[in-house]
């Protein structure tokens, strides 16, 4: 006895098959239109269509003699074909009890002949149909001819589907097929069953780019094709998917343990080094990730695998298992990027604080460093130690520096207008030094606020200066000639050398706090700081020590000739009002 739910299940399966083919609402295709024109000519009828039966509509993938793209499914003959999976002939719609009152009959259609579009799995997607405005008898030969045309349509559908699921270079199923197969696991395996997948990356993105530039795409194609046989063996006979330029995914055998499976992959990594000149041009890595059948989305599985493979590349370890903790950190990073981009246009979230730089000789304060702070509306205060490194490694650098420079110059103008002659230092990233209009923007801002150029100092790290030394030096020299002060920040942590320090048109060298903290109990560190100060003075630079937190450290720095100090011993970074009170108190 058939289950009362069987028709519903059959229809759900039919609709899922239709969805997987991704045909609905796609653009017209000459391959289908050619068959539709052939049908109209063969039957000498004004109307022909490839009609797909959706939940509540008939959508035409191809049509002749039809103005609209879809009609309601209700009382549509093509829907009856989809439900029965059989040829439907209606010599005269007005003589048929089911369709005499249909919208099709009301529009003047009298004749209908439709043949089912059947998938290999037995689902009927719709119909290849021909229609006329006059009644007409149907022969068996005509029904057979229309069935042949319907088979041609299905062959074209399956061909396009295969082309969309097979990578043309490797011949392997692609990412779309992987997603479909992972979803289909829920049919075969218990819901929530844990599976293990691997992603093999044959080379890093940089290596692929270099290979493309030097040897061209044919070389990359050869690397991919050459890897396929070994990957099939590695997958233990299971399906291997080509999901990226040089990335492949496969599932571990159902009974494989993580230890045994990862061991086999590590052995493969050790053995598969390519021969010849390519041996040192590619670095293979493997990412592993577990996923729960029916719970984890296929694209999330791919993302986790990619994340694990990238972790392996970064750690130079060959293989890594997906880490939710690392993933959370990356998710946080990208959230911060998006939120900071938004915050740059919202004056309520970002603000500047200012930390004094104090003379070690007379305790006077003639300058402050502007530091960016972020108070997120939902997450509260976000540490600059978290978001500043992100700024420096993304395209946010230009917009952020622009925001800080404008805010700093506004505050500087306000102080100068109130008779407070302070110099404000602003941190600048490597990206800013490479901007062709950076110098002009800085000088235009100073002119707009009627500020002397020497009232602004730009602090640049050694690593920023060395990213593109020629461009950095040209920009610095132009700013220095205009009177803007230049400071080398975090001195000693980057590429310090006599030649480098001598070439840069800097006024100030700031010794990084990692050298300053603890000098009271470390004679070697104190000797190193003293040597750095002497070197800087010999080259004509003033020296500022960062991270001064005690009176003892301040005295030691004073004794070895340091010019200025900055740190919690003197003051934490302050908002302008608090800074004004601090200055008044001195």
Q: What attributes characterize this protein structure?
A:
22 helices, 586 residues, TIM Barrel, Alpha-Beta Plaits, 6-stranded antiparallel beta sheet, single chain, 8-stranded mixed beta barrel, alpha/beta, 20 strands
What share of the residues does DSSP label as strand, in percent?
15-25%
CATH level 3 topology of the largest domain: TIM Barrel
Strand order of the largest sheet: 12-13-15-16-17-18-19-20
Stretches where pLDDT is under 50 for at least 5 consecutive residues are 274-280
Number of helices: 22
Overall tally of structural domains: 3
Structural category:
alpha/beta
Distance between the termini: 96 Å
CATH superfamily of the largest domain: EAL domain
Shape: elongated
- Mean pLDDT, as a whole number? 88
InterPro entries: Cyclic-di-GMP_PDE-like, EAL_dom, EAL_sf, GAF, GAF-like_dom_sf, Rev_trsase/Diguanyl_cyclase
Domain EAL: 333-586
Protein name: Bifunctional diguanylate cyclase/phosphodiesterase
Pfam families: EAL (PF00563), GAF (PF01590)
Descriptive notes:
It comes from Massilia consociata. InterPro entries: Cyclic-di-GMP_PDE-like, EAL_dom, EAL_sf, GAF, GAF-like_dom_sf, Rev_trsase/Diguanyl_cyclase. By secondary structure, the protein is α/β, with parallel strands linked by helices. The chain has 3 domains: 6-163, Beta-Lactamase, CATH 3.30.450; 175-322, Reverse transcriptase/Diguanylate cyclase domain (Alpha-Beta Plaits, 2-Layer Sandwich), CATH 3.30.70; 334-585, Alpha-Beta Barrel (TIM Barrel), CATH 3.20.20.450. It is 46% helix and 21% strand. It has 22 helices and 20 strands. An 8-stranded mixed beta barrel has the order 12-13-15-16-17-18-19-20, surrounded by 4 helices. A 6-stranded antiparallel beta sheet has the order 3-2-1-6-5-4. Strand 10 (285-292), helix 10 and strand 11 form a beta-alpha-beta unit. Helix 2 packs antiparallel against helix 5 (140-163) and helix 15 packs parallel to helix 17 (469-482). The longest helix has 24 residues, at 140-163. The radius of gyration is 36 Å and the shape is elongated.
């Amino acid at each position: 006895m058939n289950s009362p739910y069987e028709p519903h299940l059959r229809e759900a399966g039919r609709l899922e098959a239709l969805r997987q083919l991704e045909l609905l609402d796609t653009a017209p295709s000459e391959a289908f239109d050619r068959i539709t024109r052939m049908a109209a000519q063969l039957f000498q009828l004004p109307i022909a269509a490839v009609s797909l039966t959706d939940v509540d509509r008939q959508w035409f993938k191809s049509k002749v003699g039809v103005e609209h793209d879809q009609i309601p499914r209700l009382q549509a003959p093509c829907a009856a074909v989809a439900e029965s999976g059989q040829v439907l002939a209606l010599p005269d719609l007005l003589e048929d009890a089911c369709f005499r009152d249909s919208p099709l009959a009301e529009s003047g259609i009298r004749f209908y002949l439709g043949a089912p579009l059947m998938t290999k799995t037995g689902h009927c997607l719709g119909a290849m149909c021909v229609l006329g405005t006059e009644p007409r008898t149907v022969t068996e030969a005509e029904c057979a001819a229309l069935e042949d045309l319907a088979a041609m349509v299905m062959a074209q559908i399956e061909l396009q589907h295969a082309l969309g699921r097979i990578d043309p270079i490797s011949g392997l199923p692609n990412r779309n097929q992987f997603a479909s197969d992972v979803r289909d696991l829920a049919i075969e395996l218990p819901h929530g069953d844990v599976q293990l997948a691997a992603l093999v990356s044959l080379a890093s993105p940089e290596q692929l780019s270099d290979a493309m530039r030097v040897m061209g795409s044919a070389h990359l194609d050869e690397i991919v094709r050459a890897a396929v046989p070994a990957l099939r063996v590695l997958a233990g006979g299971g399906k291997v998917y080509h999901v990226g330029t040089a990335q492949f995914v496969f599932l571990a055998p159902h009974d494989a343990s993580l230890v045994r499976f990862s061991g086999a992959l590590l052995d493969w990594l050790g053995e598969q080094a390519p021969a010849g000149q390519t041996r040192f041009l590619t670095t293979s890595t493997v990412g592993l990730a577990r996923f729960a059948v029916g719970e984890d989305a296929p694209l999330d599985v791919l993302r986790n695998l990619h994340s694990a493979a990238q972790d392996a590349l970064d750690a130079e370890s060959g293989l890594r298992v997906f880490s939710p903790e690392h993933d959370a950190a990356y998710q946080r990073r990208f959230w911060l990027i998006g939120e900071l981009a938004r915050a740059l246009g919202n004056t309520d979230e970002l603000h500047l604080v200012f930390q004094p730089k104090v003379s070690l000789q007379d305790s006077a304060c003639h300058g402050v460093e502007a530091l960016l702070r972020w108070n997120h509306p939902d997450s509260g205060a976000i540490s600059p130690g978290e978001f500043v490194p992100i700024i420096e490694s993304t395209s946010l650098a230009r917009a952020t520096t622009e925001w800080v420079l404008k805010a700093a110059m506004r505050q500087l103008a306000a102080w100068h207008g109130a008779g407070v002659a302070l110099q404000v230092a602003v941190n600048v990233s490597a990206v800013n030094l490479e901007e062709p209009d950076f110098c002009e923007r800085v000088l235009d801002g100073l002119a707009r606020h009627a500020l002397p150029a020497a009232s602004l100092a730009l602090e640049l790290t050694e690593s920023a200066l060395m990213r593109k030394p020629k461009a950095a030096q040209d920009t610095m020299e132009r700013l220095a000639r205009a009177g803007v002060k230049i400071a080398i920040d975090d001195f000693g942590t980057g590429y310090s050398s006599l030649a480098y320090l001598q070439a840069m048109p800097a006024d100030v060298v700031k010794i990084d706090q990692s050298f300053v903290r603890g000098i009271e109990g470390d004679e070697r560190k104190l000797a190193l700081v003293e040597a750095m100060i002497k070197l800087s003075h010999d080259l004509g630079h003033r020296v500022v020590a960062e991270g001064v937190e005690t009176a003892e450290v301040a005295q030691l720095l004073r004794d070895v000739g340091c010019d200025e100090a900055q740190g919690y011993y003197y003051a934490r970074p302050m908002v302008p009002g608090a800074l004004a009170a601090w200055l008044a108190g001195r």
